[in-house]
Amino acid sequence: GNSLKMECCPWSRCCGMGDFRPRTVWLGHPEKREQRYPRNVINNQKYNFFTFLPAVLFHQFKYFYNLYFLLLACSQFINELRLGALYTYWVPLGLVLAITIIREAVEEIRCYLRDKEMNSQIYSKLSTRGTVKVKSSGIQVGDLIIVEKNQRVPADMIFLRTSERNGSCFLRTDQLDGETDWKLRLPVACTQRLPTAADLLQIRSYVYAEEPNIDIHNFIGTFTREDGDPPVNESLSIENTLWASTVVASGTVVGVVIYTGKELRSVMNTSNPRHKVGLFDLEVNCLTKILFGALVVVSLVMVALQHFAGRWYLQIVRFLLLFSNIVPISLRVNLDMGKMVFSWMIKKDSKIPGTMVRASTIPEQLGRISYLLTDKTGTLTLNEMVFRRLHLGTVAYGMDSMDEVQSHVFSAYTQPSHDLPASRAPAATKVRKTISSRVHEAVKAIALVHNVTPVYEANGVTDQAEAEQHYEDTCRVYQASSPDEVSLVQWTESVGLTLVGRDQSSMQLRTPTGQILNFTILQIFPFTYESKRMGIIVRDESTGEITFYMKGADVVMAAIVQYNDWLEEECGNMAREGLRVLVVSKKSLTEEQYQDFEARYVQAKLSVHDRSLKVATVIESLEMEMELLCLTGVEDQLQTDVRPTLEILRNAGIKVWMLTGDKLETATCTAKNAHLITRNQDIHIFRPVTTRGEAHLELNAFRRKHDCALVISGDSLEVCLKYYEYEFMELACQCPAVVCCRCTPTQKAQIVRLLQERTGKLTCAVGDGGNDVSMIQEADCGVGVEGKEGKQASLAADFSVTQFKHLGRLLMVHGRNSYKRSAALSQFVIHRSLCISTMQAVFSSVFYFASVPLYQGFLIIGYSTIYTMFPVFSLVLDKDVKSEVAMLYPELYKDLLKGRPLSFKTFLIWVLISIYQGSIIMYGALLLFESEFVHIVAISFTSLILTELLMVALTIQTWHWLMIVGELLSLACYVASLVFLHEFIDVYFITTVSFLWKVTVITLVSCLPLYILKYLRRRFSPPSYSKLTT
């Protein structure tokens, strides 16, 4: 059957590899495969060698804009339509395309080199000939690969052996899921027991693995050894896997490859982010379409004035070509280069160090944000935990009374607790004894129920082995999957009970007296976001007692612990102080109870169907009537300058929404703490709703309140959006601040999408963890904060900052400047091309509507490049106010939200200016026109260029030395090139006095009125920013 399967497989390959199937992988025998697997190559490129040019050109010409220019240039090959030299149309188009193609090619080559480096990393492979070297791209399903410490895992593998004494290894997964903590991974027990790694090839064994999918946090499979006596069956779960793109942090590991290439978990998880196009670009595109309309109208008018004589349809095309300058070809290039300059400025700003621009196409978006959606943990807060409170129900210990806890713990280990008969002891000591023992029980539980591992690193004095042997305090570092856990273990150390050692099966604590307590770990139930709790079963080696400890969120623990009257109330109190609350409980088990549980648990773990459900059911049988020990409160500190930054954003007219996965009380508390909700504001806490009726009532209650902040949980939000989407969004958008708690990553993205659809305003999302990626990619502007949770968010974002407080400057200064400058630049480029088109129109109408070009070949090209490019482009350096002023008066930003810098009104004003100047220059030149046509060209062209240079000077608000250089350089270029242009311009005529005065008069007439108008306008209705600068 095997050969037959191999026969039909190539066909299934052709029909598409869409169907992923489960697989049986024989250890060390890649040739025994039953289906074809993809090659293990990483490919992040957008194009390949053959598709590169067609694809890039397609992306360019799908814009109406570039297609128009391509058709223009092509029409020049037809003789009847030919106007002047071919290069007049092909050179500008070629330049635009060349710049784009080079930019894409550079990115592609960078990408290719990165991929090549990854694909050609060398690994060791176990084979019958001993260990051989193999490239990452040559690894196949079924190979046994050896990965050294600090080496990247090349493919998805099942973990078979490790060199570590404790029989486990740590992985760094920050490249895969964005979490910076290390993950503990366990080898398959059967293969770890083999004497040497070479024996893996001697045994007959296989791994059965589920089909490839995108879930990086789960895996279901089994390991079978056939030649065992009896055959060995082991269940495999996520803790036996080594996913590709993770890094081995300890020891050397051996694994068997189960997925390669595009079936890797890490590859299946990278979604293609949507290509963001800025609102500004859409507006410019719209203006170009209007200009195109104008072009068609002008051409038709010209032909109509000729009374449609002769082959008028050819005349229309010739006029279209003649006035083609109305739609400026250099606009896109100028704006793209402008964007590159803005991105460079953001990177180089010393006030916001470490800021990266990953999407250089949308810096103008930053200038008109209306809604800012932010994550809480790690974005507004530091994600650094400090232990604040231990609550035992009758008594609570705060930061100031930790010494009492310390003395209780000390007394528990120093006083012999059984030599005083109870009758002789006075009542007071008995009470104190119980408090003391309760504190000790609580501290011991906190020191045991966690996933923290102490790691010893060599310092200058002691080396690693010695430090591990003597449990040196100075060399110890705690590694764990969340900062909460570390802060709890560090606290138990501060009160005298220290976690000094841990491996897979045991834990060591050191008492205040220096004695070492040994605990065997029998089972561990890790924390998940669904269960919101973690548990551990340990056996105390000195007494043999088995205890089940558990800690978790108050919501789930309330049903698990024995009835009491204080849990709910105290949890609420602590949450209101902004603390993260965990409930700690315990249950003592007899040996029989434990054995019975273990048998059922192992049975459940071996099942292939509904495994997680069956396992959960078995664990839940233990989770009842547990003894409540204590509550712990941990505080998450705010990042620096969060309050002033939020204040700036609020004054700038930006509404801030906080979307967090944290619970309602903590979220509300952080919101108040960060002054997201101001002191005197009412808060409306949206009651939990589940049905349509409840949502209706609650919305009505909310509608009656004015100017109050809204706090709502994810589930209630879901219900409201299901039934009353429009009403809810309308009310929420009017709120000064909104806090959504208990949000899932998909809900975060959904809220962003709704805001965009409902309000049509621009949104900006800020986050730091893997759970914020979907929201960041959905928003018009995604900002990633490089936080404790790793780099995943900052890599997916359009902009990444190192601290939340940098956001203020990014928007107020850079966003505002980018938007205003791009607006000025685009209007100027349009003005520049309209001027020359107006002159052409005047010229044609004077000469009986002839379709004859006014300026030939090089003059047209020179006009939009060498002669006026530098001054016009130098507008990207212009700024209306100093950056300090922009930060001090965020209200300036509010002005931009109306979209005034580039609107139909400003566009129309510029069109009128262009028509005025074009006609003045042309009529002026005609009036003062001597005997020859040559002189008209010389006079009008020189006046045109001087006018352009003066207009740039008129628009500039703050001079920069580069601008002056640009103006002078352009002038110099023009004067120098006159020598070469004798075919168009008579050099002798230029040097005469009459030429000079004619040019001066024309230029003054075209520019002076505008200067006067500008002065009057500044005098009588100054814009808001000028009031601040004077």
Automatic annotation (TrEMBL):
ATP binds at D375, K376, T377, E485, F527, K551, R580, T660, G661, D662, R742, K748, N771, D772. GO terms for molecular function: ATP binding; ATP hydrolysis activity; ATPase-coupled intramembrane lipid transporter activity; magnesium ion binding. The chain crosses the membrane at residues 49-71, 83-102, 282-306, 312-335, 829-849, 855-877, 907-927, 933-954, 961-981, 987-1013. Residues 795-1022 form the P-type ATPase C-terminal domain. The active site is at D375 (4-aspartylphosphate intermediate). It is found in: Golgi apparatus, trans-Golgi network membrane; Membrane. Keywords: ATP-binding, Golgi apparatus, Lipid transport, Magnesium, Membrane, Metal-binding, Nucleotide-binding, Translocase, Transmembrane, Transmembrane helix, Transport. Its cofactor is Mg(2+). Belongs to the cation transport ATPase (P-type) (TC 3.A.3) family. Type IV subfamily. Mg(2+) binds at D375, T377, D768, D772. It comes from the Eukaryota. It comes from Sander lucioperca. This is Phospholipid-transporting ATPase. Pfam families: E1-E2_ATPase, Hydrolase, PhoLip_ATPase_C, PhoLip_ATPase_N. CDD domains: P-type_ATPase_APLT_Neo1-like. Residues 29-89 form the P-type ATPase N-terminal domain. Residues 126-263 form the P-type ATPase A domain. GO terms for biological process: endocytosis; phospholipid translocation; retrograde vesicle-mediated transport, Golgi to endoplasmic reticulum. The keyword Cytoplasm does not apply. GO terms for cellular component: endosome; plasma membrane; trans-Golgi network. It catalyses: ATP + H2O + phospholipidSide 1 = ADP + phosphate + phospholipidSide 2. Its EC number is 7.6.2.1. NCBIfam families: ATPase-Plipid, ATPase_P-type.
